Backbone:
């Protein structure tokens, strides 16, 4: 049986979870940035932090969001590139966070709950990268 005649692979349920999580996450983050910067939400430390970001910072943030969306779409379509997209996004996020931790008021802007949220987010990203790698290794991602 040739590749064109094979039935499409059944999409694992966890792929749906990853896909929907990243769609929601990127949208929620963009909305949060907008609400904080517009003054709709009173968060002076966060607003100051976001207003002081450079063009480079915003570009990396946008690139990370785009990589996450591309990874989510790729894993939904069961494409092998999903693993690379998620790993690149994770690496950029960690690098940018480390730079900001040493050069900006990131720790003040985050606060205790924000730091916990950041750690939780990284744990999720690492889990998604691991999952994508396992799917790739098993041949589910083509």
Residues:
């Amino acid at each position: 049986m040739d590749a064109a005649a094979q039935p499409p692979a059944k999409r694992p349920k966890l792929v749906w979870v990853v896909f929907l999580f990243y769609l929601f996450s990127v949208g929620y983050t963009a909305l949060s940035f907008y609400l904080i910067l517009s003054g709709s939400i009173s968060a002076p430390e966060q607003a100051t932090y976001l207003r002081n970001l450079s063009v480079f910072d915003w570009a990396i943030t946008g690139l990370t969001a785009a990589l996450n969306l591309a990874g989510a779409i790729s894993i939904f379509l069961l494409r092998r590139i999903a693993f690379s997209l998620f790993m690149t996004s994770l690496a950029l996020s960690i690098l940018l966070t480390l730079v900001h931790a040493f050069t900006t008021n990131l720790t003040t802007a985050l606060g205790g709950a924000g730091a916990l949220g950041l750690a939780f987010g990284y744990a999720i990203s690492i889990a998604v990268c691991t999952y994508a790698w396992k799917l790739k290794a098993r041949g589910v991602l083509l």
The mean pLDDT is 86.
